[in-house]
Predict the 3D structure of the following.
Amino acid sequence: MPRIGKYEYPQIAPRVIIEALDKIRESKVTTVAGVAQVLGHKTHNSGGFFAKLAAMNKYYGVIDKRGDAIELTPLGKKIAYPANDNERAEAISEMVLRIPLFRDLFARLGEIYDKSQFFIHLSELAGVERDVAVTESNMIRNLYDEVLPYLRSSTVSKHSIDAVTETVTMQAGQSASIGPCNVPEGMIRIEIFGKSPIMLPDKEHYIDSLIKDLQDHKKELVKGKASEDANPK
C-alpha cells in the first residue's frame, strides 16, 4: 500500500469496499477464491484483487482472512446486513475513519476546503516536504473527496456545538483541550498548543489505540534522545 510520511493508506476508495461487501452478501461466498470471482477477478492471485483484499482486511477492517476462509467482521456485517439505513451510514463512517490519513484530513479540513492549499495541509500532517506532498496530493485529494460523502451522510457530519471545553494539563507543560467544541457528533477533538488537532471517534477502542500510539512514539523519542546523549556530535 502507498505511504506518505507517517501515513500508510489504501488506494481503494470506500465505494469499492461497499460494493464488494454487497456482492459478498448476495453471493454468500466464504473463500478467498470465491470472493475474487464475485468481484470480477480471473484469479485470487492478481495484484488488483490482493490490493482490495488488503484494504478490506488491514485498513478498513471489514473482513477477517484465515487461510483461505473469509468472514465479515462485526463492522463489515453492519454494512452488509444493517438494521436500518442509519446503522449502515454510521458503520461506513466508522470504516472510513479507521484510516488515520482520512481521519486527520477531515479533522483539519472538514467538508469545504481550498483545493489549491491541499498540498500544504498534507505536507504538515504527513511531515513531508512540500515538493513530496505536491507529487502525491492529486491522488490523495481525489480519495479524500470520495470519502467526504460518507462522512456527511452520517452522525459525524459537521455541526457546531456550543459547550464548555475541558482543559487538561499535559506533563510537558502544554495544555490540551478535550471536548465537544465545534466537533462532529460522536467524535472527540484533542488540541495541543502549537500542534495540529487530533479528532477520533468517541469510542473506547479508538482512544486505547491512540494511547498506545502515543506511548510507542514516546518510547522512540526516549530511545532517540538516549542515542544522541551517547553519541554527541
